[in-house]
Design goal:
globular; two-stranded antiparallel ribbon; alpha/beta
Length: about 210
């Protein structure tokens, strides 16, 4: 993270969105699927905390199995998560500590995101009035596409708290200046929503 000699070092948080219904998994919970012998949300939470950032995880309620799997992260209950992604974003932004200068937001179903990826995003952050940073990756055709995390500076927090529906921050990203940060391979693109997604991904990883 860039800071001049008279500036304070920006303080970042990571917000993992883990309050969804996992409805496309046909009875399985994608965030509790095993990756390297641990639930996906547990590994991603640990990778986020290893970056040195404050970590917040939205969950449907505090007794949900995802809550215990999230480890030492700050838990944020989203009882109205059925409303869509925006409910989790609003709850997560509201829960942030008052001294947070920016927040990296990503769905918690992204098994390839690493601590190094979080650090690469953080290193490009210029402060609470800076640009939105968005990760990009390379898909199977070799094309570069936008993905997650997205790092919102504090100046965006008010707008994030007014979002509605299931489109998340899509309109905000269209209206604002966004700087793309290239992450390795498909790290920024790989999210697993269905049993078939998981089967294909595990086969590519040699974990069948």
């Amino acid at each position: 993270m860039n800071a001049g000699p008279s500036q304070h070092m920006p303080k970042l948080a990571i917000l993992l969105l883990a309050a969804g219904a996992s409805s496309r998994m046909r009875g399985r919970d994608k965030l509790l699927e095993q990756v390297n012998g641990r639930p996906l949300v547990a590994g991603l939470s640990d990778a986020a905390r290893a970056s040195g950032c404050e970590v917040y995880v939205t969950v449907p309620h505090l007794e949900h199995p995802r809550a215990s799997a999230a480890g030492e992260a700050h838990l944020v209950a989203v009882p109205n998560a059925v409303e869509g992604l925006s409910a989790s974003l609003r709850a997560g932004i509201t829960a942030l500590a008052g001294d947070i200068d920016g927040v990296m937001v990503l769905p918690a179903d992204m098994p390839e995101i690493t601590t190094a990826d979080f650090l690469k995003m953080a290193e490009q952050f210029t402060g609470p009035e800076g640009a939105i940073l968005r990760a990009s990756g390379t898909d199977q055709s070799g094309a570069r596409r936008v993905g997650h995390p997205v790092l919102f500076p504090r100046r965006c927090f008010d707008a994030l708290q007014t979002l509605t529906g299931d489109a998340g921050a899509r309109e905000l990203l269209k209206q604002d200046a966004v700087q793309l940060i290239a992450l390795p391979g498909a790290h920024a693109l790989t999210d697993l929503d269905t049993p078939e997604d998981w089967t294909k991904w595990r086969a590519r990883q040699g974990d069948v």
